[in-house]
Amino acid sequence: MDKALVVELEKLIGRDAVVSDTTRLLSYESDALAMYSAPAELVLLPKDTAEAAACMRLLAHYDIPIVPRGAGTGLTGGARPIAGGVVVATSRMRQVFEVHPEDGYARVGAGLVNIDLTHACKSHDLFYAPDPSSQRACTIGGNVANNSGGPHGFKYGSTTQHIMGLVVVTPQGDIIDLSKPKVDPDGVDLVGLFVGSEGTFGLATEVTVKLEPCPELVETLLAVFTGEDGLDRACDAVSEIIAVGLEPSAIEILDSLTIAAVEESSFAAGYPRGASAVLLIEVEGTETEVRGTCDDIEALTRRLGAAEFRRAQDEVERHKLWEGRKGAFGAMGRVAPDLYVADAVVPRTKLREMVRATVAIAERYGLKLATVFHAGDGNLHPNICYDRRDPEETGRVVKAGVEILEACVKAGGSLTGEHGIGLEKLGEIGLLFSEHDLQAMGRVRLAWDPKLRMNPGKTIPLRACVELSDGPRSAESAV
Amino acid sequence: MSKTADHVLQRLEALVGADQVRTLPPWAPSSQETLEIPIAYPRDEGQARELLRLAESDGLHVLPTGAGTKIALEAPRESAHFLIGTEHLCGIIEFEPADGTLTAWAGTPMRELSQLAAEGGRRVTPQLAHTSATLGGAIATAQTGDDRLRYGPLRDQLLGLRALLSAEISSQSGGRLVKNVAGYDLHRAHCGGRGRFGLILEATLRLHPALGAELHIESEVADLQAGIALAKRILASTARPLNVRVVETAQTILRVHLGGREDVVEDELRTMSAICSSFAPAAPLQFGAPVFRACSLRSQAENLAAWSSMIRDGLELETTLVVEPGIASASLIPSAPIARRLVSSQLPNIPQGIDVVLPTEVPTGLSTGVLALQGAVRKALDPKGLFAN
Ligand SMILES: Cc1cc2nc3c(=O)[nH]c(=O)nc-3n(C[C@H](O)[C@H](O)[C@H](O)COP(=O)(O)OP(=O)(O)OC[C@H]3O[C@@H](n4cnc5c(N)ncnc54)[C@H](O)[C@@H]3O)c2cc1C
Known about the structure:
The complex is a heterodimer. A seven-stranded antiparallel β-sheet of chain A has the order 15-12-14-13-18-20-16, sandwiched between helices. In chain A, strands 5-6-10-8-9 form a five-stranded antiparallel β-sheet. A four-stranded mixed β-sheet of chain A has the order 1-2-4-3. Chain A has helices at 3-13, 22-25, 49-61, 114-121, 140-146, 153-156, 190-194, 230-243, 256-264, 287-303, 315-326, 328-331, 351-364, 391-410, 435-448, 463-466, and strands at 18-19, 42-44, 66-69, 86-89, 96-100, 105-109, 126-127, 163-169, 175-178, 203-210, 212-213, 217-225, 250-255, 277-285, 308-311, 338-341, 344-345, 368-373, 379-380, 382-386. Helices cover 33% and strands 19% of the residues of chain A. By secondary structure, chain A is α+β, with helices and mostly antiparallel strands. Chain A contains 16 helices and 20 strands. Chain A folds into five domains: 3-89, 2-Layer Sandwich (Uridine Diphospho-n-acetylenolpyruvylglucosamine Reductase, domain 2), CATH 3.30.43; 96-213, Uridine Diphospho-n-acetylenolpyruvylglucosamine Reductase, domain 3, CATH 3.30.465; 217-330, Alpha-Beta Plaits (2-Layer Sandwich); 336-426, Alpha-Beta Plaits (2-Layer Sandwich); 427-478, no CATH class. By secondary structure, chain B is an alpha+beta fold. Chain B has a domain at 92-210: Uridine Diphospho-n-acetylenolpyruvylglucosamine Reductase, domain 3, CATH 3.30.465.10. Chain B contains twelve helices and 19 strands. Chain B has helices spanning 3-16, 45-58, 110-119, 135-140, 148-151, 154-157, 187-190, 224-236, 262-275, 301-314, 340-344, 368-381, and strands at 21-24, 37-40, 62-65, 82-85, 92-96, 101-105, 122-123, 158-164, 170-174, 199-206, 208-209, 213-221, 243-248, 252-260, 280-281, 292-296, 319-324, 329-334, 354-358. In chain B, the strands form four sheets. In chain B, strands 15-12-14-13-17-18-16-19 form an eight-stranded antiparallel β-sheet. A five-stranded antiparallel β-sheet of chain B has the order 5-6-10-8-9. In chain B, strands 1-2-4-3 form a four-stranded mixed β-sheet, with helices on one face. In chain B, helix 1 runs antiparallel to helix 2. At the A-B interface, strand 9, helix 7, helix 8, helix 10 and helix 15 of A face strand 9, helix 9 and helix 12 of B. Flavin-adenine dinucleotide binds next to strand 3, helix 5 and strand 10 of chain A.
């Protein structure tokens, strides 16, 4: 990296906020997709929009690629460079600028950690609905970029439904202020387009989020399935809950390997160890609504063979049940050193057959598969346990991952329900979209980033953009 | 009709057949929109592509149109050389009641979608007053239905769509699944894009479970502000109505639409009665298309209502004022259709915090940076500049 540039950047945001020594840079060379890594040349930690804009103007002047980064919990390689460039991280942008209880919104820094947002508005009896299982670490900016979901997305939807405004710094360093909360977009829906753009349109520095009123009552349920076909029956129960129109706020499935790992770990939630699958369900609303829905769900799951049905007796038990679910990926560390978290979606009528298909694929490749997923949305997470130090096994993991995606798309599903395309699924995006579709997306990307310097090599293939621009960036030529 | 329009008409007839081309008269008798404009109704996607090819080769601008129920919300017709009507691009492509999704051609009436969904134990939102409104038209004008308070805006229901950007280019984004983050959400631009970014061919909506019970109740209130105060109490209660409206004609009425599990609706009715003892059952309301609609944040609902009421008083028209404090929106519904311009020419300065959705088309108060980016995105979505702006 050009020394003069580093000095100029240090002048802009201070020496502490410019990471250039090799050891510190190591922590930015991958995200939670640990399988792949590449070093960043420099990491910048601006504290606000103005600093970010100043840095990005300078980087534009030097024509340097930029990789936005939140907490680095992404699972598709999105927050790391592919061939050099500068990482601009939001970890110092953790401000809560304002909370408006009556209008139900808050304006926060993009680096605010998801759970801290809910803490910040709790005193107003409000909460921020999107709750990725990584919510203790991931940032609101990262959630926006990936249009993240979470267990309660079943009721509340993904991040895009909760974003009312943004401040974006463009790759040229211009500030696009769309932070004023709007009931409906003013003209072209730039905010709606930005959400889910995976850091390829610009750097979000401030986010205006919609807040939800805390429900009057919440019940957490656990339906336990045993026996060889327990997982099948758990899937059928989910399909049936949806088909009959019951409306819980979350429906998650954990399989036997996940249950065992969780129960061995510090996240132990009291899931029955011998179970082949559990359904973790949450119901919210008024007392009448919650009681009625819980009774209906109990009757339905018992009819479909649940061996046990539990209702959390108090807040402590409720939290424990969720801690187990949210800590499941971490708990899997007991099974193998690494975990490949696949993310695909299938129609909710096909849960049983597609979960089976993923199990069969993993078996064929001789891999250990643990399944824990947002069943209510048809969002599968077949998690493959492996050791990345073993290249042969890693190769099998990659192949199995691709096969799982292909099978899901063939069944009418999608490549990703919440983690995004990033770097990981670039090769498969053609399974879903035609060249024309991708070119239309490429043109919109160029409208935001005419020189393709923002998170190059991610989300959509280079060819979809370069035909339309004046040429590829060097950093992208690898893709 | 001008000579050019005559020429366009002949070209259109040659492409889709004389029986599939009409000339639209000015929209309403009192309209100042005197422009007659040809409209062609392609029978299928192939013909739609041919029409766009014609536009490209002859340097014409087109404007897609559905049933014409939201004409006041379309991009101005004067900038289009011809319209493409989606009437024949209709039908169900995929309906998965158990999965809660419905994919249909853009010209399919929303009424048909609602009926089909109901047969499968599902509910389509938005529920629109205009039964002939089409799926594509509802999306292009980002219609707010009767049930937005409960289910959110149409953009939250839109799972994906496919649009023709030119004769050769069709563009799909999103998909047919309730959850999906693959690719950029271009459908978000089409939603509310007023037909300026392409001809929407098909779209998928998320469905909701059908309501076990439904109930409309109403009560007369002293005036608009009293109605809003009561509405706010209802909104602060544990009830989750589909709609809370203050409707002002000769009298002022507070109307609430409840729905859900039967026992929940009964509970909510008790809550409503505790808030306002004079609530009585009422028939569902059917409104025509508004000529004016503005919105704000919830804390501004009173100002919004007062300002909208002032606009109404200034118009020499018989209109009903409908205020929805929960979604902070106010609309003026004329007793007979009138033209957009009649209202736009009479709009005073817009106070801060209020956004006029209709009849203005041009966003207000946006910085030059935002406008430039919007322009660039618009160009990206309509690369050949075929669609009227
Ligand atoms: C244990 C675990 C559980 C998880 N559970 C879930 C889950 O339930 N649901 C879910 O959806 N995801 C989940 N994830 C994935 C991940 O946490 C989310 O994608 C999250 O939103 C990423 O946030 P982050 O701050 O870590 O972003 P990063 O990983 O740093 O970045 C993610 C992407 O966003 C871009 N980006 C980051 N910040 C910005 C910004 N300010 N402006 C523009 N672009 C930006 C990056 O370039 C990158 O492309 C999980 C991950 C882990 C490790």
